[in-house]
Design brief:
Elements (H helix, E strand, L loop, with lengths): L3 E6 L2 H15 L3 E3 L7 H6 L8 E6 L5 H10 L3 E6 L3 H7 L2 H16 L4 E5 L13 H20 L8 E6 L7 H4 L2 H10 L7 E5 L7 H11 L4 E7 L5 H6 L4 E8 L7 E7 L5 E9 L3 H12 L17 H10 L6 H14 L9 E3 L12 H19 L4 H4 L4 H22 L5 H17 L13 E5 L2 H14 L4 H7 L17 E6 L5 H8 L6 E11 L3 E7 L19 E6 L11 H6 L4 E4 L4 E9 L5 E2 L1
Parallel strand pairs: 1-3, 1-4, 2-3, 4-5, 6-8, 6-9, 7-8, 9-12
Antiparallel strand pairs: 10-11, 13-14, 13-19, 15-16, 15-18, 15-19, 16-17, 19-20
Helix pairs in contact: 8-17, 11-12, 11-14, 11-16, 12-14, 14-16
């Protein structure tokens, strides 16, 4: 069954019984008892080849405007079943002064754009056994026949996985030139044999939240090739992942000359003080940044739908800001980082990106030294503002230095504009390359790429009962920890009963935010399941958390070297106060130094555990 049935009656008991019988008779449909719980996605899922169909049970008075809007969109594949809703039925159920309002609501229900409106009596929807009586069975079969007619009229959904093409790049990188009017025609021609719908959505022309709009469109057209013409920096990747349902995410990058790590030495604080000791890096080259910026400020004023053109006083800072979104990611890590984020959110990413020529073939992209120096200075300033959680674009009119940098950049771009643009690839060449690669991703494999489990952390799992046993033994030799143990619920004699004690005790060796999945598996796969003994050094505790500092060995018992934990403070969190988070335990040494936590030295007892990968549910995978 691939349609929706809405069953209404004057009371909940009648509508529920009727809905359940219809659901049972149709077979394999989903049943919902509250109209408010029905989403737009439910209406779309009803047309799925398997597991589709939807029956909603509700009362006459549940009529609402939101549901009315949904029926306007999906009513072609929906039926309304009115149970005991004729005027005489309502008259027999209610007092005279109550009937007028209910009758009016029934009329409102009938006015909605359902494909079929069916009236029936509750007698029809008694148990299936009772309905076997000829007259009742005939009535039930008549209702079911009409409902099935609606299902048969619904076109089957194309369940082939589509593509969601997105651009983790910068403003001015050439996205729209790939998908302009010429690009649209070429895309449709390229995919005509595949009989795929081509959808192109320009971010600056979409009102409201862009990625939510993408998700809504793809939910009904998931087999299409959807090109999201909008910059997708790291903070958008989770949202991109949620839009990939029944499809494959395909990231589009510039060529290797543009996708080249930039390292900057130094940070300039918001007060203008430079710290030369810190280095930061980015996955894109400075020539790529310079040309993207040049393209943006070369747009005539008011020519860009999003307002990012020469008429925007801080346009260069917008491009710098986007470049800074990718801070701490190298060019080698960029695709794996994107893929990890998509996987973490439950999406599927292609096994490789689409790379589009940005620089002219054979040229070595270099920019004038004077322009490079100002770009580097701007990136140092941006980092200083980011540390203080301030935005140069917002403060542009109040800080003279920001305006000076903007003016310098525009003057140098104007001076070197011809030489900068001479470095870039021909638009037609880039578009042809884009089309060929995109088609390859669609036709090279009919199946989705293999989906591997996402590793949230690599840990050394140590049974909590062994930890509690060790602490009780320590108490005999060190009364100092007694106050802590009593506070966290570890009794020296009784079983530990505190609900705040950590159940899955472990030493975190690496967190997914500090290492890409590819590297995690490369470094730690050989050690999963291996036993490791750690030495317990100190017990730290505060009002929020308690943890044991450990000394992690550099090798296994057989002499094999182990990758060291990435945490500076290697520890086992044993207790977390209600309403607090375990991550606070990382701050214990600093809190102790500030006099806001306590610590006691332990007698170097050893605890044994096994190395494992943890998934998103925080359950160790053995």
């Amino acid at each position: 069954y691939r349609a929706t049935v809405v069953v209404i009656a004057a009371n909940e008991t009648t509508s529920t019984k009727a809905g359940e019988q219809i659901s049972k008779a149709l077979g394999g449909v989903r049943l919902k008892y509250k109209l408010g719980s029905v989403t737009d996605q439910d209406f779309l899922d009803m047309r799925a080849p398997t597991g589709g169909g939807l029956v909603c049970c509700t009362i006459i008075e549940a009529f609402n405007k939101n549901f009315k809007k949904a029926i306007v969109k999906h009513g072609n594949y929906a039926s309304l079943v009115l149970v005991d809703c004729e005027d005489e039925d309502i008259d027999s159920l209610l007092l005279p002064h109550q009937t007028a309002r209910l009758k009016g609501m029934v009329k409102s229900w009938k006015k909605l754009k359902f494909q079929k409106v069916i009236s029936a009596t509750s007698l029809v929807f008694r148990s299936i056994e009772e309905a076997k009586e000829s007259e009742k069975n005939e009535q039930l079969q008549a209702v079911l026949k009409k409902l099935i007619e609606v299902s048969n009229s619904a076109p089957k959904l194309d369940v082939r996985p589509g593509l969601l093409v997105f651009f983790p790049q910068l403003p001015g990188s050439g996205k729209t030139s790939l998908t302009n009017e010429v690009g649209k025609k070429e895309l449709k021609r390229a995919f005509s044999e595949e009989k795929r719908e081509i959808l192109i959505s320009m971010g600056d022309k979409v009102k409201g939240k862009y990625w939510q709009a993408v998700k809504a469109t793809r939910s009904s057209k998931s087999s299409a090739v959807f090109i999201a013409d909008k910059n997708a920096p790291p903070n958008a990747w989770s949202t991109v992942a949620s839009s990939i349902k029944n499809g494959i995410g395909v990231a589009v990058f510039p060529d290797s000359a543009a996708l080249s790590t930039t390292a900057i030495q130094g940070i300039i604080s918001i007060k203008g003080i430079e710290d030369t000791s810190r280095q930061h890096h980015y996955p894109f080259s400075l020539p790529f940044l310079a040309i993207c910026m040049a393209r943006v400020v070369s747009r005539p004023a008011k020519s860009h739908p999003g307002g990012l053109d020469c008429g925007l006083s801080y346009a260069c800072w917008v491009v710098i800001k986007f470049f800074a979104f990718y801070r701490s990611i190298t060019s080698d890590e960029l695709f794996d980082t994107v893929k990890d984020k998509i996987l973490k959110e439950g999406g599927i990413c292609s096994s490789s990106p689409v790379q589009v020529p940005f620089f002219r073939e054979g040229c070595e992209p270099h920019i004038p030294q004077e322009l490079q120096e100002v770009l580097e200075e701007a990136l140092k300033i941006q980092f200083g503002y980011d540390i203080c959680r301030k935005d140069p674009c917002i403060l542009f009119g109040k800080v003279q230095k920001l305006k000076e940098i903007e003016d310098k950049l525009r003057a140098l771009i104007k001076k070197h504009k011809d030489s900068l643009f001479a470095l870039t690839s021909d638009e037609t060449e880039s578009r042809n390359h884009f089309l060929a690669n995109l088609k390859h991703h669609l036709v090279s494999g009919p199946h989705k790429p293999e989906k591997t489990s996402f590793v949230k952390i690599v840990s050394l799992d140590i049974p909590n009962n062994e930890i509690h046993k060790m602490l009780k033994q320590e108490l005999r030799a060190n009364g100092e920890i007694g106050q802590c143990l009593k506070g966290i619920g570890i009794s020296p004699t009784d079983e530990s009963k505190s609900s705040c004690l950590v159940e899955n005790t472990h030493v975190t060796m690496v967190h997914h935010e500090n290492m890409i999945q590819k590297k995690i598996r490369l470094e730690f796969d050989p050690f999963v399941g291996k036993s490791v003994k750690v030495v317990c050094k100190r017990l730290f505790w505060s009002e929020s958390v308690a943890a044991i500092e450990v000394d992690f060995p550099s090798e296994l018992a057989d002499g094999t070297s182990i990758p060291p934990p990435k945490n500076e403070f290697q520890h086992i969190t044993v207790w977390v106060a209600k309403g607090k988070q375990a991550v606070v335990s990382n701050q214990l040494p600093a809190l102790f130094a500030a006099g806001k936590a306590s610590a006691a030295t332990l007698t170097n007892q050893r605890l044994s555990g096994k190395i494992s990968f943890w998934d998103e549910s925080k359950k160790s995978k053995k």
